[in-house]
# Entry
Amino acid sequence: MEPKIKEYDVIVIGGGITGAGTARDCSMRGLKTLLVERLDFSYGATGRNHGLLHSGARYAVTDKESATECIQENMILRKIARHCVEETDGFFITLPEDDLAYQRTFVDACHAAGIRADIIDPEEAKRLEPSVNPTLTGAVRIPDASIDPFRLTMANIYDAQLHGAETLTYHEVTDIIINQNRVEGVRCLDHITGQTKEFRAKVTINAAGIWGALIAQKAGVTVNMFPARGALLIFGHRVNHMVINRCRKPANADILVPDDTVCVIGTTSDRVPMDTVDDMRVTPEEVEVLLREGEKLAPALASTRILRAYAGVRPLVAADNDPSGRSISRGIVCLDHETRDGLAGFITITGGKMMTYRLMAEDATNMACGKLGVDKKSETASTPLPGSEPDAPKPAKKTVAFKAAEGRHGTLTTAFSLTTDIVDDALVCECEHVSVGEVNFAINNLNVHNLVNLRRRTRVGMGTCQGELCAARAAGVMCRQHEDAANVKTDLAAFINERWKGAQPVAWGDNMAEAQLTATIYEGLCGLNQYARKEEVQ
Amino acid sequence: MENEMQLLNISEYNFEQCLKCSICTVYCPVSGVNPLYPGPKQAGPDGERYRLKDPKFFNEQLKMCLNCKRCEVACPSGVNVGDIIQKARMKYASHKPKLRDQMLANTDLVGSMATIVAPVANFFTSLGVSKEILHSVMKIDKHRTFPAYASQKFETWFKRNAQSKQDKYAKHVSFFHGCYVNYNFPQLGKDLVKIMNACGYGVHLLENEKCCGTALIANGLYDQARSQGESNMSSMRSAISKGRTIVTTSSTCTFTMRDEYHHLLDVDNHDVRDHITLATRFLWQLIDEGKLKLAFRPDFKMRVAYHTACHMERMGWVVYSTQLLRMIPGLELTMLESMCCGISGTYGFKAENYETSQKIGAPLFAAIDALKPDCVSTDCETCKWQIEMSTSVKVLNPISIIADALDVEKTIELNKNH
# Structure
C-alpha cells in the first residue's frame, strides 16, 4: 500500500539552530510546518562551536553589519532564552606581543556598532578573572556571554512542536520534488525504519548549514559555499568565569569560553573541500595550535585536563557576484530561488552565525509568508522560549541534580522535579548530575532515539568520565523505551565509541587512564564489542 | 606534539585525577549507612566541577562527611577526596557555627574551665536530666557521655612533679600532649614521660601549646584553627631548633598538624611536618635502627585487640604501634578489621549524627564484643570514647599498655650505653 503523502505549508530542511528557529517562527505564524533532519538536532555546526553568545565585538572592526546584528540578537537571546544563557561578560585582552594601539580602534568600532566596550585596568581584569594571562597589557570588557547551543536548539524545536510543527530526526532528504520549476516537497529516507517517505509543501526552506550546498544541488541550483573548518578543545572543568578573547584581528584559538561545567578553547579556521565536511576528526596539529595559543589566554590551560577535541564546519557563503569566495561575509544570506534561479517554492537560508539564527529564521519565514500570502509579523524576538518563561513556578527541589537540571531545562524542570518517586532522584550521570527523572523527561519529550540524542538533550556522558559509568545506566533507563534489548546494546557500543572518537586526539595522561578503565568495563567486563557495528570497532 | 605541552596535569587536591572508579564511595563509612549522603566521589571531585561553575551548587549534605579520609586511602589515583570536601565546606558553607559547635570545638577553653571544677562538671554531665537538657537545647545527643575531666591538668602535674628532672637526660624530645591528655586523661601523658625517661630521653612541654584545632575545623571555626596552627608551628620551630623531635600520643592531633594545616588551613608547616611524630613511631624507629632497647615485665599478661583509627590508616602508621605492642612477650594481639568507629571527634556527639555514628560503628562493636579482649588499644582518644560507650571493653592507648608492661629498671640498664 502506498503510504499517505502528507501536505504542509512549509518544509524546513535541517535540524540545526537555523532550521529549529525557522520551524518555530513558521509554526508561531500559523503555518503547518514540518522539519526534517538527516541525523540529530544540533548534529552539525550548531553543536560544534564555542557556545559563545557573541557581543559582536569580534566582528566590530571588520564587519560592522554583523557586529550590529550580533549585539541586537545578544540582547534578545538574554531575554527569550534566559535558561540557555549565562551572563558571564567577557574581556578582549592585549598581550605584550599584541599592538596596544589596536585597542582604541577596537573600542571605537564596538561603540559605533552599539556594543558596550569599557577599557579597564589590567589589574582590575586580573581581579575579575583570576585565570587571565597575568602579563596582559590591556583589557576591554564587553557583553559576551555563554550560551548552550543544544539547549537553545531543543527549546526552539520544543516550542515549534507546541505550535503544531512536526519534527523528524534521522530523515535524510534524498530528492527535492520539482514539478514545472516549482519545488513541491521532499523525498526522505527514514534511517531508523529504512522507509522512503514523501512530504509535500507549498514552500521548502533549505536550512541545512554546510550541507545546504548539497540540498541546493539536489534542487538543481547552485549555492557557492566555502566550508571553513574549526577545531576546538573542551577542558575538564571551568578555568575561567568570563569569556576571554584576544584584542587583535581574529586568529586561531583566541576565544576561551566557560560553558556549563567546562571551558572551551577555539577555534582554528581552515578552508576544506566540500567532500570532507562529514569528517569531523581532529588532527594532532590542530590540538597543538589550540593548546599553544590557548595557554596565552589562560596559562592554567597548560596543566588542565582536556576532555575532548571536536570540529565543525561553518557554512560560509560567497556572494553571487564573487564566485571565487575572496570577499566572504559572515552576514546572513537568504536566497529566494524563484527570483534568483526561476525555481519557485524554494528558499535557502544560510551564512550568518548561531548568534543570528533568530534573525535568519525571521528573514526566511518572512519570505515564506510572502509566498504563502500570510500577513503575520514574527513574534520570536519577544516571546520567551519554553524554559525561559519569566512567571513560571520555580522547581521545588533544591538538590544539586535539580539545580543542574534547572540550568539545562529552565522552568521545564518542574515537569520532573515534583515527582515523589525515589528512583527519579537517582543519578544516571554523576559527573553532570543527570537524574533518572531528567532522562525520562528527555526520552518522553525531546525526540530521543538513542544515547547520543540523550547526551545532547541532557549532558549524560559529557562529564569527566565520558560515559564510563553513566552510559550503562542510561542504557538501562532507555531499555524501558525499547522492546528489543539488543538494540540498546548496539546503541551503547555506538555511544562508547562516539565518546572515544572525541577523546582519542587528546588521549594522554589521566584521559588515557580513564579510557583504559572504560574499555576494561565495557569490553572486558561486559563484552560489548560483539554488539558494536563493524565500522565502529576501534 | 611538542614535548613540553601538557606534561603535568595539576589540579587542586588532584581532583582531575579522579577516574570515577567509585572505590572511595565503597569505602566511605557514611555512604554505607546513610543514603542521604552523596558519597565522597559525588561530594568531592564530581561536585567540585559544579562548585567551580557556581558556588550555589554547594550542598549542605557535605556536613555529613566524617573527614575520616578513608576515601583518600582507597583512591588509586591519589585524589585528596576528603580535602576537597572539607575545603568546599570552608569555602562555601553559609551556616555559622552554633553555640553547641563552638562549645564542642573549643576543647581547649572548655577543658580549662572544666578541670577547675572537674567534680562538679563531671557530676553535671553525667546526670540524666542534664543529658536531656543538652540533647534538647544544645542538640548534643543524650546517649553520649562526656569524657570525664581530670581535677589536675597534665601541664600542672608535669610542672610540679616532672619538669625539673628532665634536663638531666642526655637526649630530649618535646611532647605535644593535646587537649585530651591535658584535661581528660593526664595518665597517658604520665605514661609517656615514664617510657621516655626510661629510654634516656628528657620530655619537655612546648613553649605555648594550643589545641591542634581539629575540632575547630570540623565545626567551622577556621580562623581560630589557623591562628592556633600558626602559634603551634612557631612553638615547634623553637623546639626543633634545639634538636628536639615533637612526639605525640594522639593520631588525630598528629594528622591535623602534619597534613590538615597545610592542606586546609594554608598554615605553612613544611619545615616542621617531618619533626612531628607519634611516640610509638618514634620508639619503633629507634628500636629498628638499633638505637633503643625495651625490656618488659615477665609477669605481664594481656589480650589486646587493636583498632585502627581512621587517621592512623591515612598516615599509614598502624604498623608502628602494633609492632611495638607485639614486642611485649605477654601480650596477645588481635587486629580488628580496619573500619571507622563512627564517632569522628565531635561528629558523633551531635544529636543529628548519633544514629549514623552508631550504625557506622556497629560491625566494630560486634567484633569487639565477640572477641572479649582484656582491652582494645587504639591511638585515637575519640575512638576510645566511642568504643567504651558502645561496648563493655575498656580502651587504652598503646603508650599506656607499654608503660604498664615496661620493666623500667632493666630498660634504663639496657640503654645506658647508647
In short: Chain A touches chain B at residues 236-238, 258, 260-261, 284, 287-288, 291-292, 302-306, 399-400, 403-404, 427, 430-431, 433, 463-465, 468-469, 508-510, 513-514, 517 (CB under 8 Å). The longest helix of chain A spans residues 485-503. The mean pLDDT of chain A is 92.
